[in-house]
Amino acid sequence: MAQIDLYVDPICPFAWVTAQWLLDSSAGQHTVTLKQMSLAVLNDGQAVDADHEPMITRSRRIGRLFAAARKRHGEEAFTTLYLALGVKLHPREPDTDDDTAAAGALRAAELDHVLLGALDDATLDPAVIEAHQAGQTALGGRGGSPIISIDGQGFAGPVLTAPPAPHRATALLRALVTAATTPEFAALQRPYQGPPAFTVDESKH
Prior knowledge:
Blueprint (H helix, E strand, L loop, with lengths): L2 E6 L4 H14 L4 E6 L2 H4 L10 H21 L3 H13 L8 H11 L16 H15 L7 E4 L2 E4 L9 H15 L25
Parallel strand pairs: 1-2
Antiparallel strand pairs: 1-3, 3-4
């Protein structure tokens, strides 16, 4: 049994696919903990084009909400809120409103509605930065969402463009754990395109 930590930005659609796959595939086999990272913090001081500015704003606001939830309800609140919010944000529709989605997620997760005020509370930014830095430390360098750590070995990704079929999902997890716990293994990557799909494409299996 491996200890697996997955660092995710709640607004990241690729991380949402990865988290769903990991939680579904690891049940009873490994201990999985979802943790917070921040694309807004990652891009602090970096030039961001106009198309990505809304994403950074969403990351910053939603990140504060999760920091407040962790502070008020404990670290386990991150996963509870993440799962409740994810179904409202992914796939993201043109009319998706973050405030409405956040309010609905707090209700679904049975967390205090007062946390909604955290979206625009900049005093929570240091807590977001601290959580983000923990993921960067686990990776051992600068990386985006998601970051995975398996028994203390950190890697960027895995990035999934769609949920794998069930028989491939468990095989993928076994392979990933084997790779991560092989001391000589360093990295494996290929180009990918987005946005991701959120359901299994049966035509490919």
